[in-house]
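Notes, Module 5: Reading structure tokens.

Key idea: the token line is not a picture. It is a compressed description, and you learn to read it the same way you learned to read a sequence, by spotting repeated patterns. We will look at two proteins. The first is printed below with its tokens.
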Amino acid sequence: MSNGTRYQVLALKYRPQKFSELVGQEHVSRTLQNAIASGRVAHAFLFTGARGVGKTSTARIMAKTLNCAVGVTPEPCNECPQCKEITIGTSTDVFEIDGASNNGVDDVRDLRDNIKYLPSHSRYRIIIIDEVHMLSTNAFNALLKTLEEPPEHVKFIFATTEPHKLPVTILSRCQRFDFKRVTLTKIIGRLRDIAGQENVTISDSALALIARKGDGSMRDSLTAFDQVLAFCGNSVSDEDVGTLLGTIDRRLLAEISAAVFEADTQGVLAGIKQVDLVGYNMRQFCQEMIEHFRNLLVIRSVKKPEEILDITAAELDELNKQSLHVTALDIQRRLTLFIKAESEMAYASFPRLIVEMALLKAALLAPLVPIQELIEKIKSLETAAVHTPSLPWEASRVVPAAVSQHVEPHSAVTSRPAHPAASPASPPESSGGQAEWGRFVAFVNEKDRQLGSVLEHGSPLKQEDGLIEIGFPAGSYYLTAARDAEFIADVQGLACTFTGEHTVIRVKSIETGFADAPLSLAEKKKSDAEQRREELKQEVENHPVIKEAERVFGCSITDVREF
């Protein structure tokens, strides 16, 4: 370097030197500090966990707390000679051994002979063995007796990523501490602190990409951050981070998944083309898509997804918006396709083609594979259908295919109407203010689907010249979204365009089941759909073809859907 000083990588420069600096391992820090404060320090510790989560750093901090010149203390002073020697690795009383390269029985015998002597100028002789699972069976046997009855001046600290490989005789003689993978938000927070100290300008989204690259490892995240700084200097852009680390832009994932849900095959293939042009690995992209859909599935399946998912608040908000109009079953079917595609890519010569096929199937909602064992029964049912009156909407041609796709004990039978269902943006068939509200929401949907999707869940409380008052259920996501200043401004601008005059948008909270509030478009659509489904079910249940299907397959109708 120009000033003659040696560059120190971030993982070493910002290595924790005190328990309070350990990120994501508070449960370990608190337990060890309490043990030290109460004088209940064991003679052997086992630190387990994934790589880069702080096991060896904790072992060094523990060594400093036990040998600090101030005394055995919950936090080392890092100023006395003993602390400084341990920090730089020159202490004659703290032995840090690599279990992978010193795994023989002779190495352990030499260690066992050495620890008989009292420490030279410290309180304890401390033996730190990293990757202890790499020791041979004979080496473990040689260590066993010493570990069971060690000298009072000796403490053992073992670290490993694979505790299941240790003999149970060793495990039973150690206090075990399991280190967790560091959460994404905590890694981002630590990277933000370091960026401030290094005078680096970087966005939270770029830090999220770096943290995600670390996959729960603080050391790996710092290494990736080092790589980014070497490339970008002190001003880091999101595009540079994505290109350098080979990570998938979350916006691109959102665009492609939106195209899948909207059956936009053009958008799906255009997204894959963009992935290929940027140079992303197709299998990694498929894995990222699986994770994206898994996050959507969790959001649609639980009430508090933030307690399950390891994502940022901004990402959670974006996923919440995208999952509004899809069901958990819709997401699950597509997720199954992606998981299958990812497993096929391991030996594929054309990974892009496999991804494209999976996404197109997901966009077009390909039917399930027919059950081969039922082919003959299906043929007999088709023959019987020829001699019976046809179902409404020519359903006699649809039932055999529907049965082959869905029949199992107590399965659903699906029929197809001759006339397409009304568009989601169509106004409700009502008169007066409700019809005017429906036309306005349809207009908003044409201009901005995201705004329209929220308005569909609102009830038109008042519609006057220059004023539209909308009610949303108290405590709902839609009420929160509608009260956003940017949302109100956007809807107000569209309302002015729709009505031709300045119109004020007012949002109110209403209690669920409020009698004076008209139904929202979403509620009316749901009510009409339920009524329509019940009518269809009655017609289908009484048809001779369906009765014959029930007799042949031993099934019954649980649901009737039109699509």
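Here is the second protein, with the sequence above and the tokens below, as before.
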Amino acid sequence: MMTRLAAALVLAPGFAGAAEIELATRIDRVTVYPDGAVVTRQGKAELLQGASQIVLRGLPAAIDPASIRVEGQGRMAGGGGAFSIGAVDVRLAPGEAKPVLDAVIEGKLTALRDEKQVLAGRISAIEAKRATIERFGQTGPDKLGPDGKALPVADWPAVFEAIGTALVQVHEELRGVRARAADVEGEIAALERAKPQPGRPGAPKRDVAIAVEAPAALSAEFTVTYRVGGAGWTPQYEARLSTGGAGGKPSLDLLRRAELRQRTGEDWADVALTLSTTRSAGGTQAPELTPVQVMFFEPPVLYEARPMARAAPAPMAAARAKAEADAIAEQSQKAAAPVAAEAQTAQIEAGAYQASFQVPGRATIPQDGSSRTVLLSRAQAEPALAARIVPELEEKAYLEASFVHDEAAPLLPGIVALHRDGSYIGRGRIGLVAPGDKVALGFGADDKLKVTRAPVRRRENEPNWLGQTRTDLREFRTVVKSLHAQPVKVTVTERIPYSESSAITVESLPAQTTPPTEKQVGDKRGVSAWTFDLPPGAEKEIKVAYRIKWPGDREVTYAPQPGPGPQPMPRPLN
């Protein structure tokens, strides 16, 4: 008979009088969120009869104590095995000192110290030899002959030469040995500085003490889960487009990857890995609005008799401004780079509010912050190809592939690496895409579409008397010519200014304007689109003409208005 019990976190002051039993655990599975992770540990312990406490030591200090959950099951040889789990006490424990020994450095130091002793002995021997030669040189020639008699004068030069040569040799030998001794001394000093410092207390840890009570001695298995920061994953994508060539159907492969990093303070070795799209550290409830009162502004009262009272807020305001600037700078810092993918795909489990990916097999994620990339999914689609042209900004056509995202899990915002017909063409970005939504990706310039745009007419009048209306008439002509061997779908986007002032009127000139297929693209006022199929070798002409009127005593300016998402820098109207 087996019993499974769960205990919510209860902070207790301690378990006086209860026997302590060490609980050795291993990390079995990890669920990684974009902003954290939930770690699941498993372990076994032999429980004593009566009350005791199971202690799990060395958990990271960054764990959320409120997220700790303990489950247990017991088994007895004769049947049964029920026991109860009581309070869970979370304690902050100092980290252990872990001196680091470098065997290579220690070995080099030992060899150098031995060599230093040998060199010291050689120096002493050479100095003794030099002293002997110098004493011999101090003996007069009158005592160097046989039986202590005078040496013949003819032999004196040979004696002087021998003494001088011997002194030169011994000095040279002594210089070389001393130089080597100095080098050894320097190497020893450098290695001493390079040695790891003595062990210092490491980062603090958390110990979890679990109060249990068993009617009899039994074997128990425990599962402990907790949330920890310092971990996360970011989505990355790779889109491979095959245009199909002449007469062929285009195809697109979309690979969804996840780049994982963690600095939790514990190694995730050989664990079952799950990735979730839920943000575990975000808000859990919609914000509350507080009432706002409007009133007349009352300037602060200043007292000339107390100048220090006026000067005091300045440092506080400066400090507050600096703190806000530092916070903004810290939030703006980011990191990400494409990494090689794993070969297997993950199993997707989509719920009503979140999606998770079960990575096949077991994974190892070290705690040093190095990245690990896994392949989550691979989807194939038959995209619709079109060329998109914005001639006012660039006289060039860009190939665009669009398809419907039909996977159960949404696409999270991320960078996408783009390949066209086997060639890497650059990187783009995918926004948040829900299942069933359309995705449009750009795949570089289409050099087989020639685009030209030129102003056809501009007429602007200057008022001659007060109250006259000024007008500005502009007309542009865009020509798109195809060099393709098959028909292509083309969309040209143009704009005319719009006005929110009743004194400024903007009117399109239908007689000089090609009728658009979309008078307004989305919610972009004044932006129109022309979509058409262009046969091989054919060309299409699009004209845009408009007139602006405003009072002659005023000046107007053209201010581009940003739309949703990143926008290219527009050029002035010409």
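Summary for the second protein:
- The CA atoms of residues 495 and 527 lie 4 Å apart.
- The chain is about 15% helix and 40% strand.
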